[in-house]
Design brief:
The protein is built from six helices and seven strands. By secondary structure, the protein is α/β, with parallel strands linked by helices. It has one domain: Rossmann fold (3-Layer(aba) Sandwich). The protein has a seven-stranded mixed beta sheet with strand order 3-2-1-4-5-7-6. The longest helix has 17 residues.
């Protein structure tokens, strides 16, 4: 069964906003986390892997996890074409299944959390997948009125990062902080700011 992202996979990289946003998230992520090339990372909801391709030089290995078969297929093609050895595409639905194959030093996602039904559950799963001292980095929309996706789409209408920080702290995350990292501009004059929220295990 195709999901909504399967149908968008082939055209995803043609949207310049996806690249601009990913570059901004990558820049802030590198500023906020003391990365080293020994680290292993997980990108949750990797899509076509734009963000991980931008970051791959900074990690020993990145697992690009997504539940869309077509998105993961595009990643496989890009990895093969670019001969990028340390990017590992993985078709897996973490929201509805438990993953035990690896642990990670950094877990990151962008514009994925608002599609996740149970936020606390996914934060708990991330926590169990992080090594002690590891980092979680979440980029997503600030609270908005629903006009980003349209009123008929069943998603979270952005987030108040301070409320997400409270959930993270209850789970056991430390040193939570966030910064505005990007602004998605739409016509006419619509602006949707994006935050990058960081937490440490």
């Amino acid at each position: 069964m195709m999901n909504e992202f399967d149908s968008k996979a082939r055209e995803w990289d043609n949207n310049p906003v996806h690249w601009e946003r990913s570059k901004a998230v990558a820049r802030y992520l590198m500023e906020m986390i003391p990365l080293n090339k020994e680290m292993k990372a997980l990108e949750f909801g990797a899509g076509t892997g734009i963000l991980s391709f931008l970051l791959h030089d900074h990690f020993s290995e990145i697992t690009l996890m997504d539940s869309s078969q077509q998105m993961v297929k595009v990643i496989h093609e890009k990895v093969f074409k670019t001969r990028t050895k340390n990017l590992k595409p993985l078709l897996f639905d973490l929201e509805h299944s438990d993953y035990h194959a690896n642990k990670f030093d950094v877990i990151y996602s962008q514009m994925v959390l608002h599609h996740v039904n149970d936020i606390k559950s996914i934060f708990n799963k991330f926590y169990s997948l992080l090594n002690t001292g590891g980092y979680l980095a979440i980029a997503d929309l600030y609270t908005e009125d629903g006009s980003f996706h349209g009123q008929d789409v069943e998603v979270h209408r952005g987030f108040d990062p301070d409320k997400l920080k409270e959930i993270l702290k209850l789970i056991g995350y430390k040193n939570t902080e966030y910064k505005t990292c990007f602004e998605i501009k739409r016509e006419p004059g619509e602006k949707f700011p994006v935050f990058l929220l960081l937490a440490k295990k």
